[in-house]
UniProtKB/TrEMBL annotation:
Alphabetical list of InterPro entries matching this protein: EF-G-like_DII (IPR053905), EFG_II (IPR041095), EFG_III/V (IPR035647), EFG_IV (IPR047872), EFG_V (IPR035649), EFG_V-like (IPR000640), P-loop_NTPase (IPR027417), Ribosomal_Su5_D2-typ_SF (IPR020568)
Occurrences of domain Tr-type G (ranges): 11-288
Bias type Low complexity, positions: 1-13
An annotated GO BP: ribosome disassembly
PROSITE patterns: G_TR_2 (PS51722)
One annotated GO molecular function: GTP binding
Protein species of origin: Cellulosimicrobium protaetiae
Alphabetized PANTHER family for the sequence: ELONGATION FACTOR G-LIKE PROTEIN (PTHR43261:SF6), TRANSLATION ELONGATION FACTOR G-RELATED (PTHR43261)
Name of the protein this chain belongs to: Elongation factor G
Record region (Disordered): 1-20
Amino acid sequence: MATTSTSTGPATTRNVALVGHSGSGKTTLAEAFLHRAGAIPRAGSVAEGTTVCDHEPEEVARGISVSLGVAHLDWRAPDGGTYQVTLLDTPGSPDFAGSVDAALAVADLAVVVVSAVDGVQSGTEEVWRRCDEAGIPRLVVVSQEDRARASFRTVLAALRGALDAPFVPLELPLGEEQSLHGVADVLTERAREYDGDGRTHEEDVPADVRDEEHALHDEVVEEIVTHDDDQLEAYLAGDEPGAADLERTLAHEVLTGEAVPVLLASAVTGVGVDRVLDLVCELGPSPADRAAVVALPDGAGSGGADGVPSERATTEVAADPAGDALVHVFRTVVDPFVGQVSVFKVLSGSVATGDRLVSTATGAEDRVHGLFRLRGREHVAVDRVVAGDVAAVAKLSAASTGTLLGARRAPVSARDLPERPPVYAVALRPVSQSDDDKLSSALTRLRAEDPTLHVDLTGSQAVLGGLGDTHLAVAVERLERSFGVRVATEPVQVAYRETLTRAVEVEGKVKKQSGGHGQFAVVQLRVSPLPRGEGFEFVSSVVGGSVPRQYLPAVERGAREAMEGGGPHGYPVVDLRVEVLDGKAHSVDSSDMAFRTAGGVGVREALATAGTVVLEPVSAVSVTVPSDAQGDVMGDLSARRGHITATDSLPDGRVRIDALVPEAELTRYVLDLRSITGGRGSFMATPDRYEVRPGGVVAGR
């Protein structure tokens, strides 16, 4: 454990989610923040696998973030305050969207990182929509300003063109690309020049950008004062507010979403890094400014005319250090040295070592053995944390991801995160019997870390579903590294079925005699197909007791077993009606087993005589894409034997396409859709029906 860190209260706490497209420089920027704040002696490198936030082997090997990184730092801002900043470094890949959901659930400010080289990308647009949905204030940082082809002005124009938001640029670059040497502060109209060690000194704004900077200053000041009547009146009277007054007004506008500041930085050279931290602290809201929202039990709150709530009711929890303790566990990690680590945000009250916390859902109680803040893999010990703080504790048995814990049981729960149904799946085959024995419990623990994983162990295969191929590849690696379970992956078998083509009458007979009691049973059956989706129907039309009543359940059981055993093509049989017309029994040799066998023989005979067709599962698919990709996506769906059922234009300019598509055509659809749409497309699929597969027999069977 590192040196103890103490809490300073919610007003000087900043919980900041770093979000953006993959490769925009979020992790490198977090590294620069930590180094500039003195939290680490030197900045690490993503390429070398030495960064604080990307420390897991799966991240180092790929050179990308695959989980939510948490890192604490202390920062003294120009207003004289010392702030405790928790950085929540999120992955940019859509495969790990669950980490972004978790970060936005507890952050008070989202720093949207946009590459000065690549500009607004699909990931930028996606996180912007998710911030809108979460109602979280934003600040934009144009990163990688030192790289070739960097252009702050081009990115600013792209932001204004692609995203509907009140962007307020607060800086201009001095130089750019390899010649970047400082920033022009639009509010103070002073230049901040950077020395080689990242330290700064102020100068007059250079002549080559002076006119542009002054024009931007006037534009920004007018935009800020329009939201404050007193400042607007003074400004119109010729009295321009000072930079400190403008920042106070701007901070309120950031909180309400009336302004989105745009800053710039180079994490490699250090240019602008300190100023971003200054403004995160001075303009960003604190937990005291934004009450947490928790869900009430189903049925609470007002309902519709029939008394049923139209949506789940919520209530606000103020970040009051003197209130009742309530914490939200938003991430769970299995640490190889200390076991399960629960990362949480204190919503209300305070938590100290030795306290007891109770699950608001189950009433299970845990003792807090030791508190610490996270800085990547480093644990910074702390005796007490208060409302607004993000911290962690080990070995809480009652704390799974999404749990609320408090001083006592209460009728509240964490708000549901956005639904992330699986869009890609693989089957897991244990390498050894030992791996097979441990697989189920390991998958349960793995899913506790990542709720966007889905596990299905009910069929003949162990199926792991997630948000993409990289998501599942990382999960498989984690199974072996963290839980010692080795598995091979293989394609998920499509759940084909068979059904009868026509009605047929058959006889099922069992006649065996080998001394003593034999086996005798005869049943006359009419076997016919049912309408799609009807399943199974068993009917007795026996007259006169030729088949004793007590044996009819055995005939039904035999028929069901024959259907489950598969038809001529090897798939389970569905939608069948079996009617017993007549039969024969023997007073000594008949038994339940004999009639069970006869029922199965009769059904198998019917399937062989009448023949079957193969049915394939069809999913209802809803695809959301940019309007300019609509034609390509619809053409691709048609090529997958899909049937378009509806299209709808959405308010944000995108298009939703509804279609019915065979499940066999969707195994890699998420990967192909991202390729077609440049990462801007998404979809959901739900099982809908079974239909006859064209051609009947599936290849390879």
